[in-house]
Design brief:
Blueprint lengths: L18 H20 L9 H39 L12 H4 L8
Helix pairs in contact: 1-2
Amino acid sequence: MGFVPDEAKVLPPPGIVNRSSVWLGGVGWFTAMLQNAINHRPPLRAGVHRQVLFTTIGWFIGYHVTKYENYTYARLDRDMNEYIKLHPEEFAPKEKKTFAEIVEPFYPVR
């Protein structure tokens, strides 16, 4: 599919059940139910084949949206890490402080 570039093929595939697939599968099912209701047919019993088809299409689209989302975040992480490697002076490590140095001394009040 041409939706995701070739360099995204090295990433692991997303799980079959992910939030985008479930969400868009539900939207597809609801679309079939809404179409039945608009056409004055019993929503749950009429056009079960259409319900399955729309749910499957939504699931497929959700899977590929998640695949593209994973690629986008991986690309951003790669670019950010490359920038950090090229400009180490902007990301100097901070000095380590203990917890006692951060908080104020505790004086109990009675």
